[in-house]
Specification:
The chain is mostly beta strands. The chain has a single domain, classed as Roll (SH3 type barrels), CATH 2.30.30. About 10% of the residues lie in helices and about 35% in strands. It is built from one helix and three strands. Strands 1-2-3 form a three-stranded antiparallel sheet. The relative contact order is 0.24. GO terms for molecular function: transition metal ion binding. Keywords: Iron. InterPro entries: Fe-transptr_FeoA-like, FeoA_core_dom, Transcriptional_repressor_C. This is Ferrous iron transporter FeoA-like domain-containing protein.
Length: about 45
């Protein structure tokens, strides 16, 4: 499983101590550490 260019990424929520964060990536829910999430380059849509 991965996050590829062009995927829609939405942050759903953050754990009480900020790690992990819960993402929705093209309809798939994923919990990842913040240090891993920092590697995702986001282009704001809207």
């Amino acid at each position: 499983m991965g996050c590829l260019p062009g995927n829609v990424v939405m942050m759903m929520e953050s754990a009480p101590f900020q790690d992990p964060i819960y993402l929705n990536i093209n309809g798939t829910y994923l919990a990842i550490r913040r240090e891993t999430a920092q590697q995702i380059i986001v282009k704001r849509h809207g």
